[in-house]
Amino acid sequence: MANSSRVIPLSHAKRRWLGWSIHAFTASGACFGILSLYAIYQHQLYVAFWLMGVAILIDAVDGMFARMVNIKEVVPEIDGTLLDNIVDFVNYVIVPCFFLLASDLLFGMWKWFAVMVVILASTYQFTHTDAKTSDHFFKGFPSYWNIAVFYLYCWQLSPIYNALILIALSTLSFIPIKYVYPSRLDYLTHNKYLRFGMIGLTLLWGLATTGLLWLYPVTNNFLVLISFGYVLFYIAISLYRTWIPLRAQNK
Length: 251
Hints:
This protein has 9 helices and 2 strands. By secondary structure, the protein is mostly helical. It has a domain of 101 residues. Helix 1 packs parallel to helix 4 and helix 8 runs antiparallel to helix 9.
């Protein structure tokens, strides 16, 4: 049930209009997905990354907007979770897989094998009944394939290493590690300042990664440190919460 203190105090009609607008905003992520596919088809890989970035931004904030209007109540005829999953599968799986096929990150049979493994692992992750846990974590690698492809593109490793990394990440989809849901931090910590700190670090990662894309092919060691340092921190805090779940507060 939504927290009433966070719901925008508007009339039902206005909240319903906002609800439909938020669903349209979520659906627009798929529009950026198709634009990303077209850019990849045109071999405009740099442009494709910017379009993928816009899709990530939409996904990062639409859930917050939906909770602000209690969208399940005001637009009950639309399944927002299903809509979000459809858009996410396009942007986080199909687009990066097409990028892998159209670029030189993989070669030969490794290209097709790695891409098919990624797709099969992702279909499992998206449809698993406990893929998003009741305490707002992802269980198993949460199909961040667009982000993975961005790092592989920047690192310029050999195709065989890229394939091995993709297969390793696909394997993690089946291992019940609880990964932090960056926009749902209720069960990460009881301390609101630490939750704000996590949000701040995520925003800093976004800015640093955007900076790396802006500067590409020139690199910046400071931005690399921030961007990849956050990834390591994200993995560490996810492992910590997997092994040591947050205990309920005593009332």
